[in-house]
Write a structure and sequence with these properties.
By secondary structure, the chain is an all-alpha fold. The protein has one domain. The protein contains twelve helices and no strands. It has helices spanning 2-16, 21-32, 39-56, 58-68, 74-96, 98-104, 108-129, 140-152, 160-170, 175-203, 210-236, 241-260. Helix 5 packs parallel to helix 8 (140-152) and helix 7 (108-129) packs parallel to helix 9. The longest helix is centred in the last third of the chain and has 29 residues, at 175-203. 45% of the residues are buried.
């Protein structure tokens, strides 16, 4: 049970903070000697963090859904379309390069490089956010740019939240709009990732520890809710740069460990 709880905590705490949940899960398995989570547990962990996003952004989600029925503002209907457009790059990359992406997770060297990339992007986003020319309404080029950033984050060690929020800053979005769009865009990504793992699990049926799966998903939800609230506060205060230092130190340590192993 401890294994399920630890993996759930790692997934939840690192999914929304810009430090790469996928990279941390692999490192936790290697450094703490934890067994691989298995595809069904991975599905449950993704859906646990998905539930955290749905709870925190429930009002935005309801407003977007109502707008699709013609009961909301035109801007919200545009936002819904932009979220769909921003998801297309991720779906394309995931379908075309799925095997290559999965093989990259076996390389700690790749994770170290990914963490250094995350550190560099967070620095770029921090300095871009200090610019004066900001626009509060997202446009199609912004949605596509953030979507491309999310697609790049499928590789291990590269943080989805770090890249999407930083991309929003670079494209000129306000902090509030950048973080809102980035986390709303994570909803189809988390759902899709969980669905793919679930389909893989159905292809290889086996006996599962449902209590352990529930514990893992619950821990992912609770820690995900906390990390999401923390990420929102840190973005609004312009403090995401502290995670650039963390990713730089961790990425350098992973590369050094990989070289000596």
């Amino acid at each position: 049970m401890i294994r399920y709880a630890l993996l759930g905590l790692v997934q939840g705490l690192t999914e929304f903070l810009p430090v790469s949940s996928s990279g941390h899960l692999v490192l936790a398995q290697r450094w703490l000697g934890l067994d691989p989570p298995g595809v069904l547990l991975e599905a449950m962990l993704h859906w646990g963090t998905l539930a955290a996003v749905l709870v925190v952004f429930r009002r935005d989600i309801v407003a977007l859904l109502l707008s699709l029925r013609g009961k909301g503002r035109v801007e919200l209907r545009k936002d819904a379309g932009f979220l769909i457009a921003g998801t297309v790059p991720l779906v394309t990359v995931a379908l075309l390069f799925r095997e290559g992406i999965q093989s990259a997770f076996s390389s700690t060297m790749a994770i170290g490089v990914g963490l250094l990339v995350t550190a560099a992007v967070l620095c770029a986003g921090h300095f871009a956010a200090r610019g004066r020319n900001r626009h509060a309404l997202i446009r199609f080029p912004d949605a596509l740019g953030v979507g491309l950033a999310q697609a790049a984050a499928v590789f291990p060690g590269i943080s989805r939240s770090g890249l999407t929020i930083s991309a929003g800053h670079v494209l000129g979005l306000t902090a509030a709009q950048a973080v809102r769009f980035a986390f709303l865009l994570s909803i189809p990504a988390l759902f899709g990732a969980g669905l793919l793992h679930l389909l893989d699990a159905l292809e290889t049926p086996q006996v599962h520890d449902w209590l352990g799966l529930t514990i893992g998903a619950s821990c992912a939800f609770a820690s995900g809710w906390l990390s999401l609230r923390a990420a929102l506060a840190l973005v609004m205060r312009g403090k995401l740069w502290v995670f650039a230092i963390y990713c730089l130190l961790l990425g350098s340590s992973v590369l050094a460990w990989s070289a000596l192993a």
